[in-house]
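== Sequence entry ==
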Amino acid sequence: PGTTQNVREERIVRMSANPAKAAGPPSTLEESRLRQERDRFLAFAFCRNDLLIELDAAQVVHFIGGPTEALLGTPPEELKGTQGTDLFTPDSRPLVEQLLKAADLGERITQATVTMIGADGAAPPTFEINGYKFGDLEGHYFFALRSNGQDREDQ
């Protein structure tokens, strides 16, 4: 009844019935590996881009990464929770709204030029924006923005 063989067979049956449950919680080593993988992808993303923005399905800033204080005059923690279109100048908002609608239809956003609201008194920074909406991640929108060369000279 309680032999080692029976216990082993029972565990195999449980694992095959629900592999995630049988595996248990992620180990510290697994969490470390996942964190390293995440950091690697962020490093790749920042090779070409200055800002990364994730909007939730309601188009509210869920995540923003990059030198937001230098480029926009506001730290990232203050931008989280902001309506995504409010990050852009009134002149760019219609284009941003079009891009969001295109993303809703499954289109990728490529190399559109938008102007964001900058620090008080500073010239509004312009960016090339690329992105898409990823349905598998709760319908969130993901954008990568690269500052124009003229904006880079001041940094």
Remarks:
- The chain is about 40% helix and 20% strand.
